[in-house]
């Protein structure tokens, strides 16, 4: 959780299986314009949203594969320079089409969908001016296809000859895409809009690790071994496909080698001289645009910085209360060092840890949820060991029809280094009432495809990109760590300190992200700031800080989202007094799926007015 795997697996595994009834519904919609009558705004919106979703699938073919479609499985995203303008014009067309719809004719729920849709489109289009910044730098130490080869073969189907032909076509398309990536990065060098060196320092080594494995032994070749053997197909066909697959992979290896040389011998020497993006031409405005993109709220960098410091003080104060209750004399860092070394928080085996997590989820948390939630969908989360050595814990949502359950993966590689006092907040965040509960409400709400499937890729391209609404999803998960207190899930001061340790780290992000990108902080200053205030080991802090330098504004979304939810809850409860029901409020937030924080505000204000309250009471915590 501390270092979330942000690309594919965390949230984007909502598999898309179109049912027969939906196909009929959609094909009817296609004929709607012929029968246009007054009051068909609703059908116009549905068809515009569906057309956008299909266009987006074509524009991001791997996202389409991930969403369960086979339509574009033979393609890769076009990363040519020409794509910038082509995408812009397409999106402008969708904006025009959407603005022609009369929002006042829509139901309330559709009105929100309209707002989200328009926000998705205009966020993209309004940031066209920044296409020559992040978007010109598609490779960094956290992002590129070669960092997660398993993902590529996991999402693609290998059930038919056609599936293999698609896969081979994709392999053959890769060298061209790698050339496009290098063209973009050359352009970034020319314009002076490159990363700091920390963002690409590990890249040559990461590529070497991939291409030092012979293609035939690579994960990418796996589908050509046993999986292909099992396919009902003539031996000649199989041999032919194997040969072409191998040939394709050799081409990828050659292209990757060129990319590696380019990064180490050329790009690295032209990386920006400042740590933050503030040092780039128009860097301050660029950072504001990134921040706004991630927060889905127009909060200024200095405001975010101040909020962060206020939160850090508040949480530190909470920590000190506990520490003095326990008569501990040292610093926060010393406290956590002592706690981590304490044998009472250690388990001897992976099995015990797994058992602890399951016990926590099913015996401690689930039974308490009805205090704060109603109409809870049935689908329970499952807990499994993480199949590789990644983050401590992460959540992968299931399929909308429930056939593949939402899964909480726990890293059990080093059970002796796991401390039980950190389990509770992690569990609340990743499972219930965090990511899993959010997901099951969202799935039950039957939202339009573009709302259900978010393309969590290309963080580098922000802000010239379609929004993820991370402030909603991660804000909700962080808010869930707080709900653990209201639910009485934290059983002692140690578990509470585990929670504070996680929380203060998210607050520190507001301070250092704005510090480095907007206020001229050095990397070292950021590392020291976090190390002095959180339980995190130095090596992890460094990776974190390099992440912030690579994705300006991204890490601020968590705390800002949580503060916004708390602010709106406060607004609703003071406006409604006795009529305020926390369970209705939570349903309201969860039933609309991921939304921009601005739209969340509208939703809550409507809720307040509906119940006879006076919206807009109380000043904002996050403006
Ligand atoms: C969208 O509308 C604007 C303003 O009417 C117009 O200038 C533009 O050409 C339209 N774009 C597309 C792609 O239809
Ligand atoms: C595929 O099979 C070949 C031949 O048996 C073997 O050398 C290679 O290691 C296998 N590759 C993978 C990724 O399993
Ligand atoms: C945990 O166990 C692993 C493997 O047995 C060992 O390498 C590591 O040093 C141990 N860590 C601690 C903190 O004891």
Features:
mainly alpha; about 55% helix; 25 helices; disordered N terminus; binds 2-acetamido-2-deoxy-beta-D-glucopyranose; globular; about 625 residues
Query: What spatial order of strands do you see in the largest sheet?
Result: 1-3-2
Note the gap between the termini: 27 Å
Portion of residues in beta strands equals under 5%
Coarse shape: globular
**Helices and strands, in N-to-C order?**
HHHHHHHHHHHHHHHEEEHHHHHHHHHH
Helix content: 55-70%
Class by alpha and beta content: mainly alpha
Count of DSSP helices?
Answer: 25
What low-confidence regions span 5 or more consecutive residues with pLDDT below 50? Answer: 1-38
Main sheet, how many strands, which sense, barrel?
3 strands, mixed
Distinct compounds present: 2-acetamido-2-deoxy-beta-D-glucopyranose
Number of strands: 3
Mean pLDDT: 91
Rg on CA atoms, Å: 25 Å
Protein name: DUF885 domain-containing protein
Secondary structure layout plus pairing:
Layout: H1 8-11, H2 20-31, H3 41-59, H4 61-66, H5 82-99, H6 108-126, H7 149-155, H8 161-191, H9 203-211, H10 226-229, H11 235-265, H12 283-295, H13 301-325, H14 332-341, H15 350-365, E1 382-385, E2 393-396, E3 407-410, H16 423-430, H17 435-444, H18 449-452, H19 470-487, H20 493-518, H21 523-533, H22 538-550, H23 557-576, H24 582-591, H25 597-610
Parallel strand pairs: 1-3
Antiparallel strand pairs: 2-3
Helix pairs in contact: 3-5, 5-6, 8-11, 9-11, 13-20, 15-16, 16-19, 16-20, 19-23, 20-21, 21-22, 23-25
The site of one 2-acetamido-2-deoxy-beta-D-glucopyranose (NAG) has 4 residues, from helix 5.
């Amino acid at each position: 959780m501390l270092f979330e795997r942000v690309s594919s697996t965390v949230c984007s595994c909502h598999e898309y299986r179109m049912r027969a009834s939906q196909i009929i519904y959609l094909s009817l919609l296609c004929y709607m314009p012929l029968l246009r009558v007054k009051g068909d705004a609703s059908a116009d919106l549905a068809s515009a949203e569906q057309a956008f979703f299909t266009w987006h699938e074509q524009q991001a073919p791997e996202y389409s594969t991930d969403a369960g479609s086979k339509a574009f499985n033979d393609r890769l995203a076009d990363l040519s320079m020409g794509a910038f303008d082509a995408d812009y014009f397409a999106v402008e067309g969708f904006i025009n089409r959407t603005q022609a719809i009369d929002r006042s004719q829509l139901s309330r729920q559709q009105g929100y969908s309209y707002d989200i849709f328009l926000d998705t489109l205009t966020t993209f289009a309004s940031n066209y001016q920044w296409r020559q910044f992040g978007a010109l730098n598609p490779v960094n130490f956290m992002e590129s296809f070669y960092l997660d080869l398993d993902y590529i073969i996991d999402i693609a189907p290998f059930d038919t000859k056609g599936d293999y032909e698609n896969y081979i076509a994709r392999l053959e398309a890769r060298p061209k895409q790698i050339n496009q990536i290098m063209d973009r990065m050359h352009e970034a060098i020319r314009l002076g809009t490159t990363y700091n060196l920390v963002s690409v320092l590990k890249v040559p080594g990461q590529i070497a690790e991939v291409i030092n494995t012979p293609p035939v032994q690579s994960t990418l070749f796996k589908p050509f071994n046993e999986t292909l053997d099992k396919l009902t197909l003539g031996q000649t066909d199989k041999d032919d496909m194997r040969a072409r697959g191998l040939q394709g992979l050799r081409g990828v290896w050659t292209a990757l080698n060129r990319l590696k040389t380019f990064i180490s011998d050329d790009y690295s020497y032209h990386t920006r001289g400042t740590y933050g993006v503030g040092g780039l031409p128009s860097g301050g405005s660029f950072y504001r645009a990134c921040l706004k993109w991630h927060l889905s709220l127009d909060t200024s960098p200095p405001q975010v910085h101040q909020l962060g410091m206020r939160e850090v003080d508040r949480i530190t104060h909470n920590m000190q209360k506990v520490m003095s209750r326990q008569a501990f004399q040292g610093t926060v860092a010393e406290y956590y060092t002592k706690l981590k070394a304490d044998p009472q928080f250690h388990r001897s085996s992976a099995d015990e840890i797994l058992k602890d997590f399951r016990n926590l989820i099913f015996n401690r948390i689930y039974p308490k949820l009805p205090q704060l939630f109603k109409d809870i969908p049935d689908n329970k989360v499952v807990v499994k060991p993480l199949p590789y050595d990644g983050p401590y814990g992460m959540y992968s949502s299931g399929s909308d029809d429930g056939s593949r359950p939402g899964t909480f993966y726990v890293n059990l590689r080093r059970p002796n280094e796991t401390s039980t006092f950190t389990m509770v907040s992690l569990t609340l965040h990743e499972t219930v009432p965090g990511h899993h509960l959010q997901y099951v409400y969202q799935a039950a709400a039957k939202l339009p495809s573009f709302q259900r499937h978010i393309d969590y890729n290309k963080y580098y391209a922000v802000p010239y990109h379609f929004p993820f609404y991370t402030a909603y999803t991660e804000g909700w998960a962080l808010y869930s760590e707080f709900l653990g207190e209201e639910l009485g899930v934290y059983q002692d001061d140690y578990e509470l300190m585990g929670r504070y340790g996680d929380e203060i780290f998210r607050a520190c992000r507001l301070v250092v992200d704005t510090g480095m990108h907007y206020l001229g902080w050095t990397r070292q200053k950021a590392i020291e700031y976090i190390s002095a205030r959180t339980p995190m080991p130095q090596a992890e802090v460094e990776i974190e800080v390099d992440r912030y330098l690579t994705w300006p504004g991204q890490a601020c979304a968590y705390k800002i989202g949580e503060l916004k939810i708390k602010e709106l809850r406060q607004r609703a409860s003071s406006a409604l007094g006795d009529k305020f029901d926390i369970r209705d409020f939570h349903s309201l937030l969860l039933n609309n799926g991921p939304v921009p924080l601005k739209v969340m505000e509208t939703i809550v204000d409507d809720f307040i007015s509906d119940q006879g309250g006076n919206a807009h009471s109380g000043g904002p915590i996050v403006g």
